[in-house]
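Chapter summary example.
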Amino acid sequence: MSGSIQVVRKQQHQQQHQQQHHLQVKQQQQQQHHYESSCYLSSRSSVSQQSYTTYKTTSRRVKTSVKTEKGQEVVKLSPLPKRAKRTYLAMDKDKEVIGYVIPIFRANHDEVRRLMEARQEDVTEEGINYVAMRQLFAREAREAMEVRVEKKTRTVQIRESAERVELSRTIDEWAEFRKKMNPDSLTHPPELIVKPRGMTIWEGNTVKLYCTVAGWPKPRIAWYKNNVLIDAKARPEKYAAESNYNVHSLEIRNCDFLDTAQYRVSALNIKGEVSSVATIVVKRFQDGEEEGPLDPKPHGFCPEYGVTFETSIIDKFEVAFGREGETMSLGCTVIVYPTVKKYQPDVVWYRNSVPLKPSKWVRTHWTGERATLTLVHLNKEDEGLYTLRVNTKSGFDTHSAYVFVRDANVELEGLPVAPLDVRCHDANKDYVVVTWKQPAVEGGSSILGYFIDRCEVGTHHWAQCNDTPVKYARFPVTGLVEGRSYVFRVRAVNRVGVSRASRVSDTVVAMDPSDRARLRAGPLAPWTGMIKFTEEDPTVGIVPGEPSDVVVTEATKSYVVLAWKPPIQRGHEGVMYYIEKCISGTDSWQRVNTGMPVKSPRFALFDLAEGKSYSFRVRCCNSAGVGEASVSTGEIIVGDKLDLPSAPSSPVAIRNTATSVVVIWGASKEATNLVGYYTECSVVGTDVWMPCNNKPVKQTRFVCHGLTSGEKYVFRVKAINAAGYSQNSSDSDAVVVQAAISVPGKPTGVTLLEAVRDYMVVGWTEPATDGGGAIRGYFVDYRTVKGNVVGKWHELNHQALTTTSYKAENLKENVFYEFQVRAMNMAGVSKASVPSAPLECKEYTITVPGVPVGLRVQEVRDSSAVVLWDPPAFNGRTPVNGYYLDVKEASAGDEGWKAVHEKVNRNKYIKVTGLNGGTSYVFRARAQNLAGVGKASAVLGPVLAQTRPGTKEIYVDVDDDGIISMIFECSEMSEGSEFIWSKNYQAITDTSRLTIVQEKGRTRAIFNSPSLDDLGTYSCVVTNTDGISSSYTLTEEGLLRLLDISHDHKFPVIPFASQMAMELLEKGRVRFWTQVEKWTPACEVEYVFNDVIITQGKKYTMNFDKSTGIIEMFMDSLEVTDEGTFTFNLVDGKAKGTTSLVLIGDEFRALQKKSEFERAEWVRKQGPHFVEYLDFAVTQECDVLLKCKIGNVRPETEITWAKDSNEIAEGDEDAKKIQKHDGDLTFNIGKISKSDVGIYEVYLSDDRGKDKSVFNLTDAGYQTVMNELFRVIANSSTEIKVLSTEHGIVLYSSVTYCHEELRVNWLHKDAKMAASERVKSGVTGDRLWLNINEPTEKDKGKYTMDIFDGKDGVKRVFELCGQAWDEAFEEFQRLKAAAIAERNRARVIGGLPDVVAIQEGKSLNLTGNVWGDPLPEVSWTKNEKELVTDERYKLKFEHGKFASITISAVTRADSGKYALLVKNKYGTEAGEFTVSVYNPEDEENKEDKKD
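The structure predicted for these 1491 residues follows.
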């Protein structure tokens, strides 16, 4: 124990010493750096003081507690160790990087001055590089003058001689270069062409910073970390700095958290200096405390198992998109090598660097090989960066991808979407603060506010907490019940309506925070969330003191929140509080919560007048009384204290991938309590904005995924806090979505093409990937090889090559050389290719041709590919006369090579067919001359036989003018991409045959004059893409077909949407019409009848509506002379069209009669007439209506009804059934019967004419009406129901009305039932029933009620079996037993009076009639006491029916309540009566006294 105390004291002493030293160093740094800026995080303490600090990542800090003057404890941190370095990272409490500070760079002027003074002495007219080279050559010359005597072999002498020749040539070149160059005019200061970019990476990864620098003399490059020079040579395991062709890079290996810093690159020459800063942020997954510098790092050998675990993550999940309500799964396959029995890695999932724990929304699964994360019922809270981290004993591996969650479809267009991230804060006994985040989409109009709902755990009832929407994303909820658990949700509202509810919050318990702290250490609450409290016995007589520190914690125009500290004097019982307010300028204090005091030291006041000033105070109360008021808060003005954030700065969109764009913006300058930013995108020209993220991000950089490749987008950003949304930022510049340009891949297949005594020609294959930018050239390096000893690499060319071959001159004969090649595009220079095999420089003596070069492939599809090549550089003794191409699967051995064709191919291309989709192939070519076949070329591939998604082919189009063209489209073009057309895979030189037109993402090759000379294969390649190409073979047959189509387009026919048709109109007029599909305003129509042109006049009326294309011709009537052919001839420029209609024979005569009838109908309709003739209808109430519709009537028009030719006069009974409403006449027959049969007529007449309508309600007409009535009745029947009675079981169905002629049949088990004494059917009122008396098991089964509906009948089915039978039969038995019991129970059926008045001294004899089966037991009672037969009472029961009681010489004592009790096994009954005995003398005395 004492030892541990000494250790602690020693540590405290060391910490104090370190703190003093840290303060001294800090003062010196403040004196030295005058222009540094820092970023601090503010933290709140209990003494309301703000302290500012920067988080140090190099050591742990010890927490100590210090008491202030007021006795309050403040947690302080020990000073950092002396070796801790300054960092410019801003950290939050969870050690998460939330920002960084960019220090003002100040160059080291002393170092620059020393460098420039040294150069000025030696360099007057020369550049730095020239001086260095001259000194180098001079030093080598002096060394060469020294006399040395040594023996050398011939090989050494030759090599030294060659080196001297090379050195002499180099000196001569530099001398010549110096003569041509004028340093004064060529020198210029350094310039950063491409600046290094900042990155955020995970711990354990490697990062590389690139920059491109121009300047002369060649600038000197230096890298700095937080203004400290990086010495890459001193730490080669950590840093690697490279410089190639003005492209400079710094590689930082195995990054850890200490590598988070600002990295600056500085370029310096005699003309000046330039620098640029990039920030590297290294993220780590951290559960506990941060690791110190002495803690073991999670890398390397595992002594526990004696192995080093290596982890690989394959089948990685990509960026995913989901929609609210869906379920999404993310997964990776994890391979851990070596496999150790019973050892499994630790698999952890993270979202936005926060570890995920299994819940009802998140499920994780690890099978031993595959890790899966399932997100159940997606919500916008689930959006973020998901990371899988696999921890082993030797290290860890990670994989990350972003998950986007789109909003669910709204029920109504324009509704807002649901808010998100609902949380509860500051929970107390009856109070909690609910916060949320605004959604990204406001809907058709701005969000007016939010509704907050609460639900008590264990119930399903949601109660709305606010009556009017609140604008702030923060709301205090009061009125909670102490000890109960709640969940909350939020809904947004705009002018269109209310959104869906958000995801519910976590459960919160309404209880005192101190009690919650105690419960965390004890047992958990029950599952219902209910926590029961047992209060202590109260102490009597202690009035609580006054609260202290009453402050306003929140103030908006909607509400004000007060907070205070409980009084010190409050006894053992709990206290509650009253809140009082006072309007400024008055002395009147008004109690706010008069009805119910609050339990929590928090309270929200609503309904305050905006802009007015108030003061507030609080009183405590308990059972002993109300205490004194607290100190007033002072004047508080009601209004919003939190302003909307300002708009972010203009966003900048940067290309990222083929479907994503990086958006960077400046933070809002005025943003208090910033929640985050929302990013929106819009396709240029649409003005439709879509959210890129549905969950706000705090960073000022976001990668927008899911964009359409090739489209042009603009972006904007808005900030949010609890007050709402900021204004949108200005739109970014438009950016085309396509992959960013990167360094190209490595060239491959470096081979020897030709060799002579002093030079060699080498060739290579272009890189598989160009990095998204066109390859601008190549650089070739060489080195000598002697045995196993290789020399240093030297550059062969200083200017980039544009071909894939190079002639290396001034080589030495019989010397072996190796070559390597680098490719270059605008992003930089690629890595070097694999060196070639050692090649000997000697003259070729072979007679066969060399190898073909430049093998390449295009038009790769699932089953074919086109392979092209260039002729060999060496033809042999005779010219090349053909080629052979071989192919094999990439996985096959050398024996797998097969010839693509048998005969020699004289072209330098061939289309390989018969490939298997999804299989990789390699190709090689051989050249042939008269001497034979040469060696095979370098292998091309592997090439995957697979059609790219979205691949389009060249297609041929013929426009309206008959012009034939080939069209090719590409949606993945990048900047600089071009369409390159070729014929037979050779450049098109004759431009007179084709005209090439290029548009956005589309190209057209137009045939100027199509002929047989144009036959061939046309191909088109898109540069700067991943091999997008296509071809089209124009054959003679295809050309002829295209020429025919072209002719049709040049000499077109007017298309008709419909051919000529005819229709009859009112008055019997005839309309001939047609409609053209395409026309111009110049279109003309010629009307022809029987080859004779007709014109407009009395008989014909013509019309051509050029807005709709409808052509019409009208005739008033058809006559005998109108039989024949009608024709419309159209002429529209060079287009013509004809349509005809033939009217002859029977067809014409039928049409003529119909025309005459229509004219007669028109004449009839000039007076009062029937629009609809008399007909009938059956209502749902089963009433029969006769109805008709009349038109063109006047008030004087007479309407007469008649039945059987007898007019229905106004006084008749049937006249009451007639009704007229507007143009509708009805005759309500009601419930029809045989008496209603007859012929009904309606007459219309006035001075313009008359009309008549008849309805025959006899025979067939009557039966038709009855069938319709039966149909209505049958369809109104309900499903069969069951009813049990004491006699049996009744099945019944109810109908609206039942007619006596209605036929109803009952079927049992599909067999018709016959009536019997036991089974009967019938109708009672509106009920159809089947009565089964004394049912048995045979009566079980399916019952069908077949109701005749005029056709097939309506069937209602009931299954009387199973539970239905059991319940009905049981109820029948119960009712039957009850009826039997009721009939046979014992009862008094008469004979006894209610009251008996008898004179004292007389005898009383009463007899009661009794019934019961079995015979009941009889007894008599007086005043509820049983009587027995004795001298005074004589009780008799005779014949089982009569019970009598006789009392001889009654006295007043016999007065009372008597009862005759009868009882058997079915029941008991009492016949009660009252006996009153009186004395006449006493009655007389009473009357005398009254007188």
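To summarize the output: The mean pLDDT is 81.
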